[in-house]
Design a protein that fits this description.
With 302 residues, the protein is α/β, with parallel strands linked by helices. It has 12 helices and 7 strands. Helix 5 (98-106) links the parallel strand 2 (89-95) and strand 3. It is globular, with a radius of gyration of 19 Å. Residues 3-17, 277-288 and 297-302 have low confidence and may be disordered. Belongs to the methyltransferase superfamily.
Length: 302
């Protein structure tokens, strides 16, 4: 049974555990007010079978948890997907907060099947290297399933429209199936209001974002039109009224998505070498990056 807690109920007092004190979404007490059951009650425990990964197969199934926080949901998702089936299942969870990853590692009840690493996926080349190294250990180039739950807003607020689209493209290139929960626009306004309430600087990009309104619709359109994925199922809305969506990669577009991602990485890598490792990647420097829109047009026409 899902635990019903209103988002506004968890952040009225500006204290050290206030979600507003975690501008990257790395809340230290996240699962106390949004426990794993709030998502898992919507996800069928037959999901892996439903998307084509039978228990009769001896293949190792790889699942990625993007922005895993302290790992509570990662562990719960492992139990939920594994069930009573004898399945060779491996989960990798990552988060940009090293303290949260340490907590996840210390409390991990399945260290042979679940791994946690500190990683910031917005660091394009470095994150890709780490994830590819993990996949190579299983002879794979993609995860069978990636879960990205309540992460998109933090990438969007902290890095802007272009970074959000790059992030979605990267997710699409990393997995065959994507389970996604995007925060609606009202959450953006609440997050900005909490920062102001705490006397902190507003999110750099909040006032200039052009992608706004129905965020789930914008994300779905971009994944389908530009990232070679298609929406195959909606599992309904969580207790916080967020859509839980399942996408899969269209086989005919996989090679184009891979080429698109390699192109982005090549451009960014070249730019990083010219600017130096500690400088921001921005189209306003000495070297101008092609926009994601330009690269997406290239993808759509090859």
């Amino acid at each position: 049974m899902a635990t019903i807690v209103a988002e506004s109920d968890v952040n009225d007092e500006p204290n050290v555990t206030d979600p507003g004190a975690a501008p990257y979404g790395n809340f230290i007490n996240y699962y106390t007010f949004n426990p794993p059951e709030n998502r898992l009650c919507l996800i069928p425990n037959t999901l892996l079978n439903d998307i084509g990964y039978s228990t009769k197969s001896h293949e190792t199934i790889l699942v990625l948890d993007v922005g895993c926080n302290s790992g509570d949901l990662t562990v719960a998702l492992y139990k939920h997907l594994q069930g009573a089936a004898e399945r060779n299942l491996r989960l990798l969870g990552f988060d940009l907060d090293e303290d949260l990853i340490r907590r996840a590692e210390l409390s991990n009840p399945f260290p042979e099947n679940i791994s946690f690493i500190p990683l910031d996926i917005t660091h394009n080349v470095l994150s890709r290297t780490q994830l590819e190294r993990y996949l190579a250990g299983f002879g794979r180039s993609r995860f069978h399933l990636s879960a990205c739950l309540a992460v998109t807003m933090w990438v969007h607020l902290n890095h802007g429209d272009t970074a959000l689209l790059e992030f979605l493209g990267r997710l699409a290139s990393l997995c065959d199936h994507l389970l996604l929960e995007a925060q609606p626009w009202k959450c953006y306004r609440s997050a900005a209001r909490r920062l102001r309430k705490l006397g902190r600087r507003d999110f750099d990009h909040f006032k200039t974002l052009e992608i706004r309104g129905d965020i789930a619709r914008h994300i779905t359109k971009h994944l389908e039109d530009r990232c070679g994925m298609e929406l195959v199922s909606s599992f309904g809305n969580t207790t916080w009224d967020r859509k839980l969506l399942l996408f899969r990669t269209c086989e005919r577009k996989q090679i184009h998505v891979a080429s698109f991602t390699l192109l982005i990485d090549a451009v960014i890598f070249h730019h990083e070498k010219l600017r130096g490792p500690h400088e921001d990647i921005t189209p306003h420097g000495n070297v101008t990056l092609p926009s994601v829109a330009t690269l997406s047009l290239w993808l759509a026409n090859i």
